[in-house]
Amino acid sequence: MKAREAVRKVMEEQGVGLSKLADRIEKSMRLVSDRLSQDNISVKNLREMLRGLDYKIVIMPRDVATPKGGIEIE
Prior knowledge:
There is one protein chain. This protein is mainly alpha-helical. It has a domain at 3-52: Orthogonal Bundle (434 Repressor (Amino-terminal Domain)), CATH 1.10.260. The protein has helices spanning 3-14, 18-25, 29-35, 43-52. Helix 2 packs across helix 3 and helix 2 (18-25) crosses helix 4 (43-52). The protein is globular, with a radius of gyration of 12 Å. The termini are close together. The mean pLDDT is 95.
């Protein structure tokens, strides 16, 4: 799954729209929309959006299973 797809999935699961996420991270709705349209979101921007959704980025060995509720990014 691509990073933008993962963020949108979490948003959908939480019932959070663009406007609400933008408010949480104190950015414009247009900026959040633009970020979610990019093929390659920077780690900094991804981290910021995920923090607004109460998620975090974790780096772990490839042979370790993704924990329940976790999402693997391609």
